[in-house]
Amino acid sequence: MDIQRYKFLLFFPFYVQNFLTKRGVMRKINLIISTFLVSLLLLSVSASIVIGSENKDTLLKEAQILYKAGSRYVDARRQNQWKIIYSFQHPEYQKTISFEEFKYFSGHVAINYRKDRSFKRNVSGYPLYPSVEDIKRNPIKKDPFLGVPLPSLYRFIPSLGINISSHKFEKVYLDDSGTLGKVAIKLNVIETPATARFKIHRNIQYIDYWEKNNGKWVLAVMKRFSTLHVSGAVTREHPVPSNVSRWDKAHFTEFKPEDFK
After folding, report:
1. Contact present, 207 and 183 (Cβ < 8 Å)
2. What is the rounded CA–CA span in Å between residue 114 and residue 224?
3. Is position 65 within any domain?
């Protein structure tokens, strides 16, 4: 009796499957399961598309805010509006570099410039620039030989031989978190080489690096900016952040100015 019971329990699943197969029930069950799985797949794909679309819309709105900040920053630099230019600098930078220092050095001074020995003294060993206290007392920069005041002009590229004739925004880049950004600008420049009397007209892609700090877009803390020339060719014509690896590792979505209209 026990043996018969065990045989029944052992072969019961096969009896059930055979019954369902004969009745065509198994085919219906398979159809229901397949339909359910396909529906679940379509639902997950649709949800991903919706989430992706919402995220793209969020980035678009944030990129538009960055584009407006970048536009205002460019206009301020071209019009030498020093207070506005300084207001876009990173809070950590402003804690170290005063407005008077920033303006005195024409907007191109590294956050740790006082620690740079080559910056402190000239070839004769004398201080190359006045102290912070002297700059604050007399913030107007003067010609070292003639002693006459020099105009406070902001230069995108700190070279007297390069002048900007016009500019055009090309792209805005925003990372997935919406906290790191880049604004690419095409500068039309007129360059007058020091050893030549002719002028060179060319285009330069200039990049401003931004990050969001306490809800506001500000410039990243930059390294000391100096154009490097190798065999007469300029290898770098825009400043880069001191921690540029954050931007190098980030994944960016790019937007064009027409995307904001």
Report:
1. yes
2. 11
3. yes
87 CB burial (10 A radius; 0-12, 13-18, 19+): middle
Numbers of helices and strands, H then E, in the chain: 8, 7
Six-digit token string for 177: 């978190």
DSSP 8-state assignment for residue 122 = -
Structure tokens at 157: 């590229």
175 and 54 in one domain?
yes
Any domain includes 196: no
Task: Read off the pLDDT of residues 127-183 as tens digits, 9 standing for 90 and up.
Answer: 567 888 888 888 888 777 777 888 889 999 888 888 999 999 999 999 999 999 999
Please, what is the end-to-end C-alpha distance for the chain in angstroms?
Answer: 85
Q: How far apart are CA 217 and CA 72, in angstroms?
A: 12
